[in-house]
């Protein structure tokens, strides 16, 4: 195994687990994840960070997907600790291994930044949702301020290599809207105590539009 492969397999999952468990990010998860109900799918479920926030009284089944073997280990352990059966599979957002119209809710938190093709991933999330199903999301992305965007563009090439392909400059609400969802934005802001180039957050719920 080369150094690059070792880093991707062992260091990146732990780095993401730590970064994505920061207090400001956890507060956003706490706002978004409990909205999930019915048959639920979580993209980027590796790490199991969202598991404590699901309401088992509202969720009838839970499925998840992540490309990281180490992340899947964490997710399955978290599901086991929660005490519910979970169908958690390896896979990539551009080709989700579940059928059309399978889910009532899709949860996507801090994942669209690192998929290879954001637009295709959003099309896949729409495909697996039932008509009227909801995409619940919290993501970081392109800042509204020109000065911050300039720094995002400068830092992004190095950041992607360090953080498992994470992009800093991708749009959030606009991308969800363009994928065929009716977007209800719940909030947007810079995260306190986080550098602005990494701290612009947008979160909301989006209904699969017909």
Automatic annotation (TrEMBL):
Transmembrane segments: none annotated. InterPro entries: Methyltransf_11, SAM-dependent_MTases_sf, Thiol_S-MT. GO terms for biological process: methylation. One of its GO terms (molecular function) is S-adenosylmethionine-dependent methyltransferase activity. Residues 42-136 form the Methyltransferase type domain. Keywords: Methyltransferase, Transferase. SUPFAM superfamilies: S-adenosyl-L-methionine-dependent methyltransferases. This is S-adenosylmethionine-dependent methyltransferase.
């Amino acid at each position: 195994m080369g150094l690059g492969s070792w880093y991707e397999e062992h260091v990146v999952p732990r780095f993401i687990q730590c970064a994505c468990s920061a207090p400001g990010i956890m507060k956003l998860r706490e706002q978004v994840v409990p909205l999930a109900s019915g048959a639920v799918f979580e993209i980027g479920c590796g790490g199991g960070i969202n598991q404590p926030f699901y309401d088992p009284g509202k969720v009838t089944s839970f499925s998840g997907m992540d490309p990281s073997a180490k992340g899947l280990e964490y997710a399955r352990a978290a599901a086991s600790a929660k005490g519910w059966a979970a169908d958690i599979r390896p896979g990539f957002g551009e080709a989700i291994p579940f059928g059309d119209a399978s889910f009532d809710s899709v949860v996507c938190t801090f994942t669209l930044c690192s998929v290879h093709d954001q637009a295709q991933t959003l099309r896949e999330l729409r495909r697996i949702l039932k008509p009227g199903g909801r995409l619940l999301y919290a993501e970081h992305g392109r800042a509204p301020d020109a000065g911050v965007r300039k720094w995002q563009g400068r830092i992004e090439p190095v950041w992607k290599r360090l953080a498992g392909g994470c992009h800093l400059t991708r749009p959030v609400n606009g991308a969800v809207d363009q994928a065929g969802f009716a977007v209800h934005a719940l909030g947007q802001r810079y995260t306190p105590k986080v550098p602005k180039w990494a701290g612009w957050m947008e979160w909301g719920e989006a209904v699969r539009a017909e």
